[in-house]
Specification:
The structure holds 2 protein chains of 2 kinds.
Chain A: E1 2-9, E2 12-19, E3 23-27, E4 30-32, E5 35-38, E6 46-51, H1 57-65
Antiparallel strand pairs in A: 1-2, 2-5, 3-4, 3-6
Chain B: E1 20-26, E2 35-41, H1 46-53, E3 59-62, E4 66-69, E5 80-84, E6 90-91, E7 104-106, E8 112-113, E9 128-131, E10 152-155, E11 165-166, E12 179-182, E13 190-191, E14 210-213, H2 218-223, H3 227-232, E15 237-240
Parallel strand pairs in B: 3-5, 4-6, 5-7, 6-8, 9-10, 10-12, 11-13, 12-14, 14-15
Antiparallel strand pairs in B: 1-2, 2-4
Classes of the chains: A mainly beta, B mainly beta.
């Protein structure tokens, strides 16, 4: 299912669109892991058939150990 | 080095004769994957190639005979400071991973990188990366992940073909990264995930970065998904390459050949 979250940065409202089923999202033939747009654009995405890429073991370890903030 | 297997048609490289393409192959000695270096014979220095495979090669490395690197091909080169492979056309995943002392790569003819991870990641001394012929199909996930000193990337000056995608985590953790030059002219690259810039100067609350693209594509990038968000952060800018200091010049200041 497509999920949308709204947040504000520097006085601009943005919308984050992602799948809660671990899928990519797509619009106009382009595919994204997640999509972030100024909310005023009103963009609509659909869930792709393709799974999100899994993070590598190195990246997971770095995140766990705090090497990458 | 006894456990390094170097094969050419079933024989060791010292028995190599004639011409053709050679794949030097190790059995997972350095990482979980095997290491391949594709090399054009004859004319090569087998001792040098063995030293690359053994990760003992140090200083500036220039090798015109290597035409492709497989997964982990020149990773963990702890003592290398510069790597120049003027005839290398393709890179496997982790090709230059964890080269902690390399400050410069010269890869003028790399066109393709595999659909995988970490090709230049964990290069903690690397300041910039220029890949003029990298096809716009994909700038794959985590390509420059965690390169702490990296300031710039300059891609596509000599590339052809349709635009592709900047993958997730592409520059994740590159804390000094503030200049991205995408010279692809046939359309805007898709930005798969804003986490491509997490921890960089481009990130929300960062000191600011500049995206340089062809003037005809400034508006497209500005309005594209994810790019619009990155560019919308207060300190970031998007500029046309034309009439900038990068018009005709790579990010390191060298002139782009005609």
């Amino acid at each position: 299912m497509i999920v949308q979250e709204h947040y504000e940065l520097n006085g601009i409202e943005f919308t984050r669109t992602f799948s809660d089923a671990g899928k990519c999202v797509t619009r106009d033939g382009e595919e994204y892991e997640e999509a972030n747009d100024p909310t005023e654009y009103g963009r609509v995405y659909t869930e792709s058939e393709n799974d999100l890429p899994s993070i590598s073991a190195e990246e997971a370890l770095d995140i766990i150990t705090g090497v990458v903030e | 080095m006894a456990d390094i297997e170097v094969q050419y048609k079933g024989s060791t490289i010292k028995q190599q004769t004639g011409s053709g393409t050679v794949t030097l192959h190790t059995e997972g000695k350095y990482m979980e994957d095997d290491v391949d270096i594709v090399y054009t014979a004859p004319g090569g220095d087998s001792a040098e190639l063995l030293s690359i495979l053994a990760r003992t090669k140090s200083g500036a490395i220039t090798n015109s005979d290597i035409t492709a690197l497989g997964a982990y091909g020149m990773s963990y080169m702890a003592n290398a400071t510069k790597i120049s492979l003027p005839n290398c056309a393709s890179l496997g995943d982790h090709a230059f991973y964890y080269n902690r002392n390399v400050t410069e790569y010269n890869l003028p003819n790399v066109e393709t990188i595999t659909a995988d991870w970490y090709h230049f990641a964990e290069n903690r001394a690397l300041v910039g990366l220029i890949l003029p012929k990298l096809k716009g199909t994909h700038i794959w996930p985590s390509i420059c992940y965690n390169n702490k000193l990296m300031v710039y990337a300059d891609f596509g000056a000599k590339a052809s073909g349709k635009p592709g995608q900047v993958g997730g985590s592409a520059f994740y953790g590159a804390t000094a990264f503030n200049t991205l030059i995408l010279r692809y002219t046939q359309g805007a690259l898709t930005l798969s995930n804003i986490n491509a810039f997490s921890g960089t100067c481009f990130a929300s609350g960062g000191s600011g970065g500049t995206l340089y693209v062809p003037s005809a594509l400034v508006a497209t990038y500005t309005q594209s998904s994810n790019w619009s968000t990155i560019i919308g952060y207060a300190n970031n800018q998007i500029k046309a390459i034309e009439n900038s200091i990068y018009d005709g010049y790579y990010a390191d200041g060298t002139a782009i050949p005609a």
